[in-house]
Amino acid sequence: MEAEKTLAAFSRGEYNVFKALTRRKNRMATMTVRMSDEDAALVRKYVGFEGTTISEFARSAMLEKIEDHADLQQLRAAIEADDGQRFSINDVLEELD
């Protein structure tokens, strides 16, 4: 089945549950996201406006968050290793010539 057809949204108490499918080496994992009805409505409107699926939106948002965290860790490591030495643009241009 296509991911869009297998994407199921249903209510359970005060929560909406989305089953999102992700692809990893031709395998698919199912993940469940619980959120309020208001948040679920906002997500539905957003993906409709963007012309994407809830599954694709969730996948890209989660992976982006992980990448942002890795970037932040690299930045912190670079700041910690910084020896304070700075170069002017002229110094850099001279070095490149």
From TrEMBL:
UniProt cross-references to InterPro entries, sorted A to Z: DUF6290
Superkingdom classification of source: Bacteria
NCBIfam families: RelB_antitoxin (NF046040)
Protein name stated in the entry: CopG family transcriptional regulator
